[in-house]
Each structure stands twice: as structure tokens, then as C-alpha cells.
């Protein structure tokens, strides 16, 4: 079948122009159903001089999967999830992680991905994939066995440990810089039930809850993956709170019990459910465009906690999340993939809620908060940026990783056709 091309005014254009958080007005949207379609779309962009935006699930906080006046290559038709063997699964990059979890569940299999149903396979996996079993099974990208990639030249190649191993290394963490990935072969893990806990604490106990959580996680079983959330007040009726979400791989409520006794508990819930039901839907208030920034920290020190608590309220609508990492993620050597930050104890994520107009008066304070936090941190996760800067790129990719990515980029995309991402320039 011919490549489906949608232009402004065509049926479907209004549904496809925008992404999760961003509005776009592309000149064309190519709905790619095969790798050959992707190659054809790349060739068309070259002929017509259109900048390319590649889209899997459309959840880029930076709006990188749509554009104005360019070509969007929409991979959502490539969403098959096929079991190839015992635990080997081929997943189209246009699939959503909720689809993957649902398709694998009847086989007693799962791939640790992220926390959200509608996030796409492509974007999450190319950057890392910090999911509900990251401490037990590592990043989503640690499960990749092979990938099909369409290069800037339009070649359809396979990347694995044996075939194009430089490309295989680079696509595991290097984002969309190297080519358009149309499918991944993943080694799934045998998991079914998850014990999932939600605890909400009084904000008066914030410091005790954070430090208690950190101390518990330092000795926790790798089966336990948790995040801690600091919610700002939402009007007078909803005061600030501290939340903990915990996922224990297995049916064992006792494994999450200690997380319910860290302060004055306002509410809690413990359920045992299939992994596929742990993933949740996410929605954004219309008009909001959150400012998203993150860093890893090798250690959640008392000083980092103290500075965070002393400064965070300067930005009133800022949500803060601390994700405990380590475990299996830390057991992969830093140089094995283009995701280098294996030694982190936590990822610190800040999300300033509201519209662009709401952000204007808090911009300076937001930067001031990060000037205080930054010295406590080391490295960053490429998938949680709304306005990636050169400093963010350098935090995500340490110098040695950057140099190696630039060399692979020079081999596979020397003209930097794929620059709608946290962009690595090809080595000269
Ligand atoms: C609500 C929400 C929850 C999230 N939760 C998590 C989480 O729990 N864990 C986590 O690790 N991350 C999480 N993320 C971050 C997420 O990993 C990134 O936003 C990721 O880029 C989304 O992937 P996507 O395919 O949906 O995005 P897209 O917007 O489609 O793509 C993102 C980027 O990747 C490029 N790209 C996408 N697909 C391809 C491809 N096949 N080939 C080449 N380049 C491609 C795009 O050009 C773009 O630059 C979350 C994001 C949101 C908005």
C-alpha cells in the first residue's frame, strides 16, 4: 500500500497535528506502516527540504515529535506486539507501553518500561525507560536484543550485538539521533502480579518522610521500586502533601509495609494486581505546558534534601519527584550502552505546572532553585526535559559517551537529518 500522506485540511490532520503537550502545524504527516514507508518519507523530506519530526507515542515534553511547516513521520501504525519465542518479543515502535503490557500479560511476561499507558515504545526506549521494575530488571533499553533501523540514507538495517554493533550501542540511550527505529526485539521477563502501594503523608512530615524513605531504599530488596512525590498546594482546599508510590515485583504486601510508617499518614492503599494494571493514564489540563527538568544524584545526601526543602516553595506550582534507582540498572557497565548514569541513587525531577503565561513570573526563581540543586547532582535523564539546553545535553551524555555518539552519528547521519531530538552533532 502507498504511504499515507496527510496535509492540512485532510481528514485526520486535526487529530494528528498535536502531541501530548504540544500543538503543531506540520506541512505533511506521513503515516508510516512499514520500514519502506519510513524510507520513502525520509526521501520525500530530502527532496522537498522539509525538517523531520519523528513520532512514536508523542509524549516528548519538549514537543519534539511535531513541528511547524515540516514533515512528521508518524509511526503509530507500526504498533504490533509479537511473541517470537519463549520470552522474545518484537514490538513496533509506534505501540504504547500499555499495549505491550496487555499483550504480554496472558503469557506471564512483562517489560519494565515507564509508569504511563500511552507513552510510546520508541521515545521511551531510545532514551532509557525508568519503569516500575527498574531496580529488579533494569532500564527498558537493557532488554533490547536487536532493532530495525531506517538510516538517513534510507537503508533498512538491523542493529544487534553482531550486526552494526556501533549503532546497537548508540540507539540504547542516544535517543532519535541515529536513525528511525521501526521495531525492537526485546527479552521480556517472567512477571505477573505486582504489589502496588500508595501512601499520602502530611506535608508537615516532609523531611522525615524523605529521609526515612531514602534509608529504607538503601537496604531494600531489588524487587522494590519506589518514587516519592512532593505535591504543591492546589488552592486552599488541597494543601501540599508528600506521596510515595511503591511497586514490589510479586504478591507480598509485607514488602511495602515499612513505607507506610514514615510519618503522619493521611491515606494509603495496597493492592496486588497484574503489571499491566499498574501502568496509568496521564492527562494534562488544557493549555498547560509544564517545564520539565531533571538530574540524577549519586547520593541523596541530607544537604540535598535540606536545600530542596528550603528552596522548592519559591516556585509555587512546582511538583517534585524523586525516583529511587540502582539495583539491576546499576549492574550494567556504564559504557555498555549510551545511557551512562548507572551509579545514581535517585533521579530528581521537577515539573512546573501551568501555562506558558503562568511560568513567566516564576522563571527566575526556577533557575535560582536549580542553581542551588545542581551542585548536588551528577548526570541527567535525556527523556525528561521540556527545554533541553546544551548543559542538559552535557549532563545526559558525559564527554566520552558524547564523543562516541558523535562518531556513530557521523557514520549514520552525517548531515544531521535527525535533529529533532536532544541533538548530538556528528563528529567532523
Ligand atoms: C505523562 C508522561 C509520563 C512519563 N513517564 C515516564 C516513565 O515512567 N519513565 C520514563 O523513563 N519516561 C517517562 N516519560 C518520558 C518519556 O520516556 C519520554 O517523553 C519519551 O520520549 C516518550 O516517548 P514517545 O515515543 O511517547 O515520544 P515521542 O514524542 O513520539 O518521541 C520522543 C522523542 O524520540 C524521538 N523518537 C520517537 N520515536 C522514535 C523512533 N522510533 N525512532 C527515532 N526517534 C524516535 C522523537 O523524534 C522525539 O525526539 C513520561 C513522559 C510523559 C509525558
Structure description:
The model has no long low-confidence stretch (mean pLDDT 97). It is globular, with a radius of gyration of 21 Å. The chain contains 13 helices and 18 strands. It has helices spanning 13-16, 35-48, 97-104, 121-127, 134-137, 165-171, 206-218, 275-278, 302-311, 356-359, 363-373, 390-396, 399-412; strands at residues 4-6, 28-31, 52-55, 71-74, 81-83, 88-92, 109-110, 144-150, 156-160, 180-187, 189-190, 193-202, 224-231, 241-249, 265-274, 291-297, 318-324, 346-352. A hairpin with a 4-residue loop joins strand 5 and strand 6 (88-92). The chain folds into three domains: 4-74, Uridine Diphospho-n-acetylenolpyruvylglucosamine Reductase, domain 2, CATH 3.30.43.10; 81-190 and 399-412, 2-Layer Sandwich (Uridine Diphospho-n-acetylenolpyruvylglucosamine Reductase, domain 3); 193-393, 3-Layer(aba) Sandwich (Vanillyl-alcohol Oxidase, Chain A, domain 3). Flavin-adenine dinucleotide binds next to strand 3, helix 4 and strand 10.
Radius of gyration: 21 Å
* Helix coverage percent: 25-40%
Please indicate the percent range of residues in DSSP E strands (runs of 2 or more). Answer: 15-25%
Task: Tell me the CATH architecture of the largest domain.
Answer: 3-Layer(aba) Sandwich
List low-confidence stretches: none
Which distinct ligands sit in these coordinates? Answer: flavin-adenine dinucleotide
CATH topology of the largest domain: the name is Vanillyl-alcohol Oxidase, Chain A, domain 3
Number of helices: 13
Q: Count the domains.
A: 3
- Could you give the order of strands across the largest sheet? 15-12-14-13-17-18-16
CATH first level of the largest domain: Alpha Beta
Amino acid at each position: 500500500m502507498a504511504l499515507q500522506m496527510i496535509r492540512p485540511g485532510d481528514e485526520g490532520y486535526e487529530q494528528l497535528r498535536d502531541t501530548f503537550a504540544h500543538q503543531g502545524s506540520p506541512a505533511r504527516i506521513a503515516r508510516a506502516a512499514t520500514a519502506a514507508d519510513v524510507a520513502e518519507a525520509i526521501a520525500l523530506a530530502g527532496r522537498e527540504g522539509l525538517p523531520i519530526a519523528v513520532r512514536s507515542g508523542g509524549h516528548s515534553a519538549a514537543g519534539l515529535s511535531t513541528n511547524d511547516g515540516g514533515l512528521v513521520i508518524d509511526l503509530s501504525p507500526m504498533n504490533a506486539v509479537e511473541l517470537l519465542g519463549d520470552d522474545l518479543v518484537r514490538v513496533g515502535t509506534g505501540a504504547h507501553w500499555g499495549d505491550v503490557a496487555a499483550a504480554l500479560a496472558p503469557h506471564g511476561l512483562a517489560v519494565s518500561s515507564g509508569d504511563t499507558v500511552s507513552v510510546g515504545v520508541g521515545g521511551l526506549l531510545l532514551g532509557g525507560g525508568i519503569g516500575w521494575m527498574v531496580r529488579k530488571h533494569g532500564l527498558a533499553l537493557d532488554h533490547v536484543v536487536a532493532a530495525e533501523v531506517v538510516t538517513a540514507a534510507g537503508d533498512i538495517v538491523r542493529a544487534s550485538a553482531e550486526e552494526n554493533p556501533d549503532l546497537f550501542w548508540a540507539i540504547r540511550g542516544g535517543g532519535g539521533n541515529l536513525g528511525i527505529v521501526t521495531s525492537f526485539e526485546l527479552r521480556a521477563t517472567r512477571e505477573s502480579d505486582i504489589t502496588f502501594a500508595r501512601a499520602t503523608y502530611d506535608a508537615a512530615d516532609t523531611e522525615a518522610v524523605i529521609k526515612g524513605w531514602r534509608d529504607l531504599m538503601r537496604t531494600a530488596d531489588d524487587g522494590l521500586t519506589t518514587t516519592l512525590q512532593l505535591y504543591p498546594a492546589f488552592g486552599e482546599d488541597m494543601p501540599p502533601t508528600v506521596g510515595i508510590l511503591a511497586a514490589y515485583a510479586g504478591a507480598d504486601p509485607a514488602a511495602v509495609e515499612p513505607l507506610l510508617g514514615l510519618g503522619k499518614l493521611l491515606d494509603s492503599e495496597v493492592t496486588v494486581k497484574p503489571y499491566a494494571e499498574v501502568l496509568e493514564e496521564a492527562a494534562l489540563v488544557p493549555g498547560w505546558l509544564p517545564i520539565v527538568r531533571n538530574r540524577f544524584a549519586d547520593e541523596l545526601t541530607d544537604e540535598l534534601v535540606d536545600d530542596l526543602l528550603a528552596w522548592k516553595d519559591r516556585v509555587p506550582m512546582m511538583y517534585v519527584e524523586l525516583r529511587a534507582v540502582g539495583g539491576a540498572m546499576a549492574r550494567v557497565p556504564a559504557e555498555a550502552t549510551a545511557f551512562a548514569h548507572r551509579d545514581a541513587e535517585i533521579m530528581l525531577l521537577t515539573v512546573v505546572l501551568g501555562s506558558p503565561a503562568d511560568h513567566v513570573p516564576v522563571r527566575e526563581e526556577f533557575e535560582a532553585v536549580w542553581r542551588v540543586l545542581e551542585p548536588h547532582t551528577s548526570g541527567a535523564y535525556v527523556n525528561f526535559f521540556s527545554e533541553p539546553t546544551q548543559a542538559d545535553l552535557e549532563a545526559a551524555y558525559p564527554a566520552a559517551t558524547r564523543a562516541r555518539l558523535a562518531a556513530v552519528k557521523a557514520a549514520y547521519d552525517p548531515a544531521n537529518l535527525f535533529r529533532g531530538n536532544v541533538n548530538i552533532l556528528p563528529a567532523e
